[in-house]
Specification:
It is found in: Cell membrane; Membrane. The chain is mainly alpha-helical. The chain has seven helices and no strands. The termini are far apart. The N terminus is likely disordered.
């Protein structure tokens, strides 16, 4: 442990950018997020084109449980804030704080995902299956694709926590934490668009 604290004491303020490899990792990840943005943009376009084609299935207005979606949104937005706190702890070389805030982020993200699974299950019981209509297919593809990204993020943060426990905070683990935080904010921004385009517009009609 003493070797970790010794290394931490010598870490620069932004350890994620201290090495060329770290900076390259961050730049490369921004490019990856650009590709992801195009992918989600395509799914949004498909959803907007097909959202009125409900066939015999329920309409968005009949379907959506707004209180549930609002709660899920609050959980995910709060988890974005706690991931900011984890970065602040990292910049203060506070390993305990970093791990603590990442665990809170993990718990909030898992709660969001649990609500989404419950929501999907509820919709299927209401006769809104994946193949019910063009609207239902585009809805599940867009929202489910986002949910899969959340699930991947949760797995990622678990692996990060294990690495931080084992190796501590250094110029190798710091860029990984930073890149995860970028990914998590991206997921949050996408959800704000889903909340607006799918749920708010669905309720307003």
């Amino acid at each position: 442990m003493s070797s970790h604290s010794h290394v931490e004491g010598q870490l620069p303020h932004e350890p994620e950018r201290a090495t060329l490899e770290g900076r390259n990792k961050i730049t490369g990840f921004w490019l990856f997020l650009g590709g992801e943005t195009v992918l989600f943009g395509t799914l949004f376009a498909a959803y907007l084109t097909l959202r009125s084609q409900v066939m015999d299935g329920p309409t968005p207005n009949e379907l959506f449980d707004f209180a549930l979606v609002a709660l899920a949104t609050a959980l995910l937005l709060t988890s974005s804030l706690t991931s900011v706190f984890s970065l602040q702890a990292m910049h203060k070389h506070n390993l305990k704080g970093l791990i603590g805030w990442l665990i809170v982020t993990l718990v909030l993200g898992a709660a969001f995902l649990a609500l989404e699974i419950y929501e999907f299950n509820h919709y299927v019981h209401m006769g809104h299956g994946f193949t019910t209509s063009a609207f239902s297919t585009s809805f599940y593809t867009l929202v489910g694709f986002h949910g899969a990204h959340v699930a991947f993020g949760l797995l990622w943060v678990i692996l990060l926590l294990l690495q931080l426990k084992k190796r501590g905070l250094n110029t190798t683990t710091a860029p990984k934490v930073y890149v995860f935080s970028l990914y998590w904010h991206f997921i949050d921004v996408v959800w704000v668009f889903i909340f607006t385009v799918v749920y708010l517009m669905g309720k307003v009609g």
